[in-house]
């Protein structure tokens, strides 16, 4: 049995038909759910990956694309993203188009926020290339690429590039879109854990342009 077949089989074996519609409603998803919890999806993916370990990044990419593009249930897409959490492929620039594809076709916060974790790894490994990509996304017509650009440095702590953060926030400042305003506040709030003085100064400089939501989120723990 292949990696993808194993994951699909185990997900269906763990399905909970009573829970599935509630999960779909909560996530406002057009794609149905099987009713498998996030921890269970991660466990299923981990076991299957160990049993059917991809030989290289190309094989990993093929499995992820198969699961993602061929998904009939949302948990299959969660599993595809979980496959990218492992050491194989982490920080691999060749996977950047795949991450972008997942953000655009996933087109919802849960998928995009997971993609952001992988972009943070890429920022560490390839800061110049991913800086160019993030700046481009921040000016895209696609809402989810813009959100991805803003939150793409979450978790980098003292490695965060504040110039890049300012650059990707800038195009979103006048936007009324909730998911952008929330992303701005989230990115600033997280960086405040590492450099509160910088965040306070940023908010003061941009006070007239920041939405109330972004400002409250940024200063929430200060």
Number of strands: 0
Overall SS class? mainly alpha
One letter per element, helices H and strands E, the order comes to: HHHHHHHHHHHHH
| Overall helicity | 55-70%
Uncertain residue ranges: none
User: How far is the first residue's CA from the last residue's CA?
Assistant: 52 Å
Strand content: under 5%
What is the overall pLDDT average? Answer: 97
Main features:
mainly alpha
Please tell me about this protein's structure.
With 222 residues, this protein is an all-alpha fold. Helices cover 65% and strands 0% of the residues. It has 13 helices and no strands. The termini are far apart.
Nutshell version of this structure?
This protein has helices at residues 3-13, 20-27, 38-51, 57-69, 74-83, 96-106, 109-125, 127-138, 143-151, 162-169, 178-192, 196-205, 212-218. It is an all-alpha fold and 222 residues long. The mean pLDDT is 97.
Topology:
Elements: H1 3-13, H2 20-27, H3 38-51, H4 57-69, H5 74-83, H6 96-106, H7 109-125, H8 127-138, H9 143-151, H10 162-169, H11 178-192, H12 196-205, H13 212-218
Helix pairs in contact: 1-3, 3-5, 4-5, 6-7, 7-8, 7-9, 8-9, 8-10, 9-11, 11-12, 11-13
């Amino acid at each position: 049995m292949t990696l993808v077949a194993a994951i699909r089989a185990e997900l269906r074996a763990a399905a909970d038909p009573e829970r599935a519609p509630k999960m779909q409603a909560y996530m406002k998803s057009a794609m149905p759910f099987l009713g498998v919890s996030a921890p269970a999806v991660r466990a299923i993916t981990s076991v299957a990956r160990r049993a059917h370990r991809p030989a290289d990044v190309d094989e990993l990419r093929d499995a992820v694309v198969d699961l993602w593009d061929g998904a009939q249930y949302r948990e299959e897409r969660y599993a595809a993203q979980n496959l990218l959490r492992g050491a194989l492929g982490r920080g691999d620039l060749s996977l950047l188009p795949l991450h972008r594809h997942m953000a655009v076709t996933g087109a919802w916060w849960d998928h995009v926020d997971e993609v952001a974790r992988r972009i943070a790894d890429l920022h560490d490994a390839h800061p110049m290339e991913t800086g160019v990509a993030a700046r481009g996304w921040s000016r895209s017509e696609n809402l989810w690429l813009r959100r991805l650009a803003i939150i793409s440095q979450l978790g980098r702590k003292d490695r965060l590039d504040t110039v890049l953060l300012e650059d990707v926030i800038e195009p979103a400042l006048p936007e009324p879109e909730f998911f952008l305003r929330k992303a701005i506040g989230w990115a600033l709030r997280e960086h405040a854990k590492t450099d509160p003085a910088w965040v306070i100064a940023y908010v003061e400089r941009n006070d007239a342009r920041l939405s109330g939501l972004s400002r409250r989120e940024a200063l929430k723990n200060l």
